[in-house]
Specification:
This protein is mostly helical. Helices cover 57% and strands 0% of the residues.
């Protein structure tokens, strides 16, 4: 899976420009994307409905909690 990653912004609207931060973010998202792709393919091979699996993956991402919010 190949995604065009966006320019990342801080909550104040400034661009996240630190090369190391962007590198870590890119690596994390590539790993996450590959894990999601593998889980998706496994589910389909096991006979699960593609639409249901996609919907579940979207819901799972929407339910991520921010442990740093004040």
């Amino acid at each position: 899976m190949s995604l065009q990653l966006p320019t990342w912004y801080a909550p104040d609207g400034s661009v996240v420009s630190c090369t190391e931060k962007i590198k870590v973010m890119t690596e994390n998202l590539q790993e996450l994307g590959q894990m999601a792709q593998d889980a998706f393919e496994d589910a389909i091979l096991m006979g699960c409905d593609e639409r249901q699996v996609r919907a579940f993956l979207v819901e799972m991402m929407q339910r991520l909690e921010n442990p740093y919010q004040s």
